[in-house]
Amino acid sequence: MFDYNVVLIGFMGAGKSTIAELLRTGWGMERIEMDALIEEREGMRISKIFETKGEPYFRDLETELLIELQARSNAVISCGGGVPMRERNVAEMKKNGRVVLLTAHPETILERVKDNHDRPLIENNKTVEGISALMEARRERYMAAADLVIETDRKTGEEICRELVEKLHRMEEEASR
Ligand SMILES: Nc1ncnc2c1ncn2[C@@H]1O[C@H](COP(=O)(O)OP(=O)(O)O)[C@@H](O)[C@H]1O
Ligand SMILES: O=C(O)C1=C[C@@H](OP(=O)(O)O)[C@@H](O)[C@H](O)C1
Ligand SMILES: [Mg+2]
């Protein structure tokens, strides 16, 4: 469908993994889930990697994986929420990808993540205030990395996918004019 990768970024719970799966099933794109690949290779859940090896170790794995993924195309790459915080990572994802930022308000995020316990960075402060603070700290880098921004509050996954595909096609048309 695309001759590049679609790279999904955004805060935890913005819907990156969900939208990647829908683009796989509904649009036939190959789905690459960075967190799942890292878990598989390390033989450990993300929370266990943070606990036993530390966050910097995990961040290095993310960078190595992104570099490796540049060999792909027409894949949807679902990043972990922290990936765009490293400038090097953003440079990598832009080499062969269009970067799509999914956003949602902290209240929506809290509702979506409250019953999941595999997000170590928010596990100890799962409140609107805690989520807002981390979101604010990340906003600037997220926006700087994005080629396209899609708000996800009160939209279904299918609606978000349709909007994403339409906007990317429109971007291509405009670029080719
Ligand atoms: N548009 C949406 N509307 C309602 N719930 C959603 C939506 N997108 C994702 N979710 C739910 O929110 C939770 C987190 O989504 P996920 O795709 O894992 O986010 P991310 O990968 O960005 O952390 C999941 O339970 C998912 O089913
Ligand atoms: O925002 C982050 O720093 C993280 C987000 C998580 O992925 P999701 O965004 O898919 O929850 C996961 O990579 C890890 O817990 C760190
Ligand atoms: Mg995810």
In short:
The protein has 9 helices and 5 strands, in the order βαβαααβαβαααβα.
Ligands in the model, by name, code or SMILES, are:
adenosine-5'-diphosphate, shikimate-3-phosphate, magnesium ion
Arrangement of strands in the largest sheet = 2-3-1-4-5
| Spatial gap, N to C terminus | 20 Å
CATH class category: Alpha Beta
* Biggest β-sheet description: 5 strands, parallel
Low-confidence stretches: none
Count helical runs: 9
Let me know the number of strands: 5
The overall pLDDT average reads 97
CATH level-3 fold name: Rossmann fold
Number of domains: 1
Order of helices and strands: EHEHHHEHEHHHEH
Fraction of residues in H or I helices: 55-70%
Rg is: 16 Å
Overall morphology? globular
What's the CATH H-level superfamily name?
P-loop containing nucleotide triphosphate hydrolases
Which CATH-level-2 architecture? 3-Layer(aba) Sandwich
Overall structural class, as computed from helix and strand content, comes to: alpha/beta
Family: Belongs to the shikimate kinase family.
Subcellular location: Cytoplasm
Binding site for substrate: 35, 59, 81, 138
Binding site for ATP: 13-18, 119
Task: Note down, in words, how this protein is organized.
- This protein has 177 residues and is α/β, with parallel strands linked by helices.
- The protein has a single domain (5-176), classed as 3-Layer(aba) Sandwich (Rossmann fold), CATH 3.40.50.
- Helix content is 58%, strand content 14%.
- It has helices spanning 16-27, 34-42, 46-53, 55-69, 87-95, 106-113, 120-123, 128-145, 157-176, and strands at 5-10, 30-33, 75-78, 97-103, 148-151.
- It has a five-stranded parallel beta sheet, sandwiched between helices.
- The mean pLDDT is 97.
- Adenosine-5'-diphosphate (ADP) binds at residues 10, 12-18, 112, 152, 155-157, 160.
